[in-house]
Please model this.
Amino acid sequence: MKKCPSCGHARSYELADGRSKCKRCGYRYCWPSAWSASRLSDVAKHELLRRFVWGMPVYRQRFGSPASAPAAERFYRLVRACMAWAEEPREPFEGALECDETTFGGAQLGKRGGGAYGKVIVFGIIKRNGQAKALPIAAHSRAEVMLHIQAHTREGALYYTDEWQAYATLKMRGEHVVIRKEKGKPVGRDHINGIERFWSYAQNWLYPYRGVPGKYFHLYLGEVCYRFNHRDQDLKPLLVKLLKATSMQDINPKLVQIR
Ligand SMILES: [Zn+2]
Model:
């Protein structure tokens, strides 16, 4: 049954843009929400979410799981899609930023995990002591990286990067500090520790999900960004709220999107 995600009231007006407006509290929403799109019971969904917050992959829930493995996987895909969607519309970053690129997966992980994703190139930006954004990119190219810098940072920012050629034109957008390294250690007092910490945070979260399918990698990356950007909050109530407020209409493109 169609219910208001805010107050639970069942009656609503249909708005011209296809959304519904709650007759009791006036909340506007799209239907179905990700929460209601899953046919699992509320008890099962709450339990699955609790385990998700702890970082328990489906293969470790073989016994005593509130749902079958495929149903749990499907539900977690919805959760990740909501997280990825929530991470998307953030404002362009300004101020002191660290930019860097790295690769995930590849031969080593594939051999051990079996069926793991191939090598994925990821570009990341982090605000000093703050939020992070990370996106899979198609190629290790200047054009690709500058495209994301233009979309996700404001002109006039202070950029910290490594010595990679692709960043050479950054000084036309803002200030640019290049971190030179000798034997893996930065020379001088400047550093890009923030983004390097984020990469190891991401590796730690992704490693236990050893069979990440390549076509859903963007969802896992969204999950990692969401976790990182909400690292001081209790995720369980946040995720329940997020799933109830996110419509399938919004996340459907993510569920079919191939990186
Ligand atoms: Zn309502």
